[in-house]
Design brief:
The structure is a single chain. By secondary structure, the chain is an alpha/beta fold. It folds into 2 domains: 2-48; 90-176, Nucleotidyltransferase, domain 5 (2-Layer Sandwich). The protein has helices at residues 2-11, 18-32, 39-48, 130-143, 159-162, 164-172, and strands spanning 90-99, 105-113, 119-125, 151-154, 175-176. A 5-stranded mixed β-sheet has the order 3-2-1-4-5. A hairpin with a 5-residue loop joins strand 1 and strand 2 (105-113). It starts with a helix and ends in a 6-residue tail after the last strand.
Length: 182
């Protein structure tokens, strides 16, 4: 059984963990008409042979916007009241990291309206720098109509949302954030 496990593990280029590999081993044994092994046995044998999946490693660094230079932190004035009946009254923004096909990180920043759940603007980039973060906010300011009521943009406390340039653009667009008061 160890030879079968090792052969399948190498066939799938070390990208299969215990769950996927045990399913393949069980399928192989089913096809040759032998009794299928339990997944715990496959796991134990993989552990004995020191076979570990390299694709999904928990030690892989994930993007964390809270790391970086700290600016002005503020209170959460929205207090999880995310419902709104007016367009542009409450807007949210966040950065997300994805893995591209070549396993390199790609960053997506989205600005979304909570009343309509519509994506207002977005930005895609290879690096989560300040220029990347400011691009969708600049687009938003160009397309925002005059509403006559207060606009609120809610973000996490990431470094790009604490930056002076971000706060300056918000003041320029007359947008209040629960995080930063102009």
């Amino acid at each position: 059984m160890k030879e079968v496990i090792k052969g399948l593990f190498e066939h799938f280029e070390t990208e299969y963990g215990v769950r996927q590999l045990s399913a393949q081993v069980r399928e192989y044994y089913r096809l040759i008409g032998k009794q299928m092994p339990n997944h715990k046995r496959v796991q134990r044998l993989m552990h004995e042979m020191e076979l570990k999946c390299t694709k999904y490693n928990r030690r892989v660094r994930k993007y964390d916007s809270s790391k970086g230079p700290n600016g002005k932190k503020a209170k959460n004035k929205l207090r999880r009241r995310f419902m709104s009946d007016r367009k542009y009254q409450k807007i949210v923004c966040d950065v997300t990291e994805f893995k591209a096909q070549n396993q390199k990180p790609v960053y997506l920043e989205i600005i979304k309206d909570l009343a309509t759940n519509q994506i207002l603007t977005w930005s895609l980039g290879l690096h989560p720098n300040l220029h990347f973060s400011l691009a969708p906010l600049k687009q938003l300011l160009m397309q925002l109509p005059h509403t006559g009521y207060q606009l609120t943009l809610h973000t996490d406390q990431g470094w790009q949302y604490q930056h002076k340039a971000w706060r300056h653009l918000l003041r320029k667009g007359h947008i209040v954030t629960p995080s930063y008061l102009p």
